[in-house]
Amino acid sequence: MKRLLSTIALALASAATAAAAMIPTPAQTEKIHHYAPMADVPALSDAQLNGLMEIIESNASENDKRIRAGMVLQRRGTLLWN
Q1: Distance from CA of residue 39 to its chain's centroid?
Q2: 33 phi-psi bin (left φ>0, alpha ψ -120 to 50, beta other)
Q3: Which of 44, 37, 45 is nearest to 70 (CA)?
Q4: Please, which residues have CB within 8 angstroms of residue 62's CB and are 6 or more apart in sequence?
Q5: What span, in angstroms and rounded, lies between the C-alpha atoms of 19 and 38?
Q6: What is the mean pLDDT of the chain?
Q7: Is 28 exposed, middle or buried (0-12, 13-18, 19+ CB in 10 A)?
Q8: Predicted confidence band of residue 80 (pLDDT cuts 50, 70, 90)
Q9: What's residue 5's pLDDT?
Q10: pTM: predicted TM-score of the whole model, two decimal places
Q11: In the chain, pLDDT over 90 holds for what percent of residues?
Q12: What's the alpha-carbon Rg for the chain, to the nearest Å?
C-alpha cells in the first residue's frame, strides 16, 4: 500500500512539473511576440516553444528570424501569418 501511494505521489509530482514546464515565461512571450506578433503563445507546445526560442536566440538576421518563426507556427496551425 505504501508503495502504491508513493508511486501515485511521484506521478502527481511529475505531472505538475511537466505542466509547469509548458507555461512560457513573460520574457519568452515578449520575445516571441516581437518576431510573431499574432502568435497564441500560451497555446504553444513545448516543441514549438523550444523551437521558437532557438530561432530567436540564433545569430540569424531579424528578417530571417521573423520568417522562420512564422513557418514554425504555420506548420502547427497556430498562426495564419504575421
Answers
A1: 11
A2: alpha
A3: 37
A4: none
A5: 24
A6: 79
A7: middle
A8: very low
A9: 58
A10: 0.64
A11: 37
A12: 17
What cell was used for 61? 538576421
**DSSP secondary structure letters along 32-74:** HHHH-TT--GGG--HHHHHHHHHHHTSSS-HHHHHHHHHHHHH
Distance, CA of 53 to chain centre:
8
Specify the DSSP element, H or E, that contains 30. helix 26-35
Joined grid coordinates for residue 32: 516571441
d(Cα 46, Cα 20) in Å, to the nearest integer?
A: 11
Is the CB of residue 2 less than 8 Å from the CB of residue 33? no
- Grid-cell match 519568452, residue found: 28
Q: Give 15-50 pLDDT, tens digit per residue.
A: 554 444 568 999 999 999 999 888 889 888 898 899
